[in-house]
Amino acid sequence: MGKKDRYTEQTEQKKAGTVRKRSPLAVIIIIVCLVGSIIILMYRMFFAPKDYVLKVVSAVEVTSQNQYTRYGEGYIKYNTDGAEAVKNGKTIWNISYNMKKPIVDICGDYCAFADKGMQTLCITDGQGGNYPINVPEKIVDVVVAEQGVTAVWTDSLSKDHIYVYDINGVLLIDIETSIAKDGFPLSIDISDDGQKLVTSYMTIKDNITSWVTFYNFGDVGQNYAGKVVGSYSFEGKIIPEVRFITNDRVCAFGEDGCILYKMKQLSSELAVQETKRLTAVCSDKEVICLAESETDGTKKITIFDTDGKHKRNIVTGLDFTGMCVEKEELILYNNSSIIIYDLKGNERCRTKLDGGIRSVHPAGDKKYCVIGGGDIRILEMVVDDNNEG
After folding, report:
1. Cβ atoms of residues 51 and 384 within 8 Å
2. What is the CATH number of the domain that holds 299?
3. How far apart, in whole angstroms, are the C-alpha atoms of residue 193 and residue 212?
4. Is residue 215 part of a domain?
5. Position 28 in a domain
6. In what order do the strands lie in the sheet containing 268-274?
7. Is residue 31 in a domain?
8. What pLDDT score was predicted for residue 205?
9. Half-sphere exposure of 335 (CA within 13 A, CB side)
10. Which residues make Cβ contacts (< 8 Å) with residue 238, sequence separation at least 6?
11. Could you tell me the residue range of the domain that residue 359 belongs to?
12. CB of 83 within 8 A of CB of 113?
């Protein structure tokens, strides 16, 4: 490092005795050392990269007769007799019904349970209120808005209906379709405010054609025939899923990417994101993620915002079967492994779990709910004390 600087301390004789007076250079060196030590300590505490691990903090055994799905930071377990919502290990509501093949859709606190292939529907308000509705035809699918407005897709062989009910069972809208005219139904979704609807149908004549149709049940939609405010065709393509990303952003997903629409009142195309072969999708109210397989065996996740602006690509070697994006984190998982990335592309942590993994979602600050084959585990992300940065 070179020779050290040398300095000489000066002394002065005073009446009270002898006092050693430090030179200005010595004081400066001491201050610099102290400030440097504080900066290093603060960097290590707040900014230096850390290694994290996922620690199991609780586990609840599951039974085969129940099905499980996410409900906010907790989960819902449901079967043919009823449903129960659980958060932090405590039941927050439960309802009873009688269904042979229950399906569920969730938006905010509200849930809609329907007996697929039958005519029973019930809506719960997230506080234990249970509102049963009898539907005229056999139920194919159901979607619910955040205040309980529910759209039910039904099948009566020659004609299909989309019935829209309020939580008290009052019929708000009846949209009639037919296979001969409109094709086979593929997907349906309703906006958070319950005022807009999007559907995907497929026709097979000379070739396959998919139709994505937008409905507006508000004042603007009253001026349009059948309340249809937009319709788009895709020849030779299948659109298996349509989804409201936000209250006025809709995504239509196909095998080779997706089309993003804006729909404040009417619909219009906003952006197109292409992929070679789409294998998985996820979204929150800020971003949309598209996954595709690469030729080298890796998988690429393309991330873009709700205006269609590209944000980042993340490439991973994990052969994942599911993914979830929320709170600036991307969670990838398969039957035995979990990897969590931030949306800058940095890997935050990874872990392996026995027993099978069906789904993973955030469950609070640095906590994650893992629904598996034999139990539901809550994991917490903590600093790895054995390998701290």
Report:
1. yes
2. 2.120.10.30
3. 20
4. no
5. no
6. 241-246, 249-254, 257-262, 268-274
7. no
8. 81
9. 3
10. 186, 202, 208, 210, 254, 255
11. 52-61+279-389
12. yes
Q: Which of 357, 345, 360, 348 is nearest to 282 (CA)?
A: 360
Highest average pLDDT, of 25-29, 36-40, 248-252, comes from: 248-252
Give the separation between CA 339 and CA 351, rounded to whole angstroms.
7
**Is residue 144 pLDDT above 50, yes or no?**
yes
pLDDT for the residue 27 = 65
Exposure string over 41-72, b if 16+ CB within 10 A, otherwise e? eeeeeeeeeeebbbeeeeeeebeeeebbbbbb
Q: What percent of the chain has pLDDT over 90?
A: 71
pLDDT mean over 240-267? 96
pTM of structure = 0.83
**CA–CA separation, 238 and 223 (whole Å):** 30
Calpha distance 382→341 (Å, rounded) = 15
Q: Is the pLDDT of residue 387 over 70?
A: no
pLDDT tens track for 53-97: 888 888 998 888 899 999 999 999 999 999 999 999 999 999 999
Q: CA-to-CA distance for 61 and 57, rounded, in angstroms?
A: 14
Q: Give CA angle at 276 (314, 301), nearest 5°.
A: 15
Segment holding 209, helix H or strand E: strand 208-216
Burial of 169 (0-12, 13-18, 19+ CB in 10 A): middle
Any idea what the Cα angle at residue 86 is, between residues 82 and 91, rounded to 5°?
80
**Whole-number Å distance between alpha carbons of 277 and 242:** 17
Count the domains in the chain.
Answer: 1
Rounded CA gap, 209 and 194, in Å? 28
Instruction: Please report where in the chains the tokens 């490092």 appear, as a residue.
Output: 1
116 contact partners, CB below 8 Å, separation of at least 6: 101, 102, 103, 139, 140, 141
**Alpha-carbon distance 81 to 102, whole Å?**
9
pLDDT digit string (tens) for 270-290?
A: 999 999 889 999 999 999 999
Decide if pLDDT at 11 tops 60: no
Beta-carbon contacts of 250 under 8 Å, excluding residues fewer than 6 positions away, are 189, 198, 214, 242, 243, 244, 260, 261, 262, 263, 267
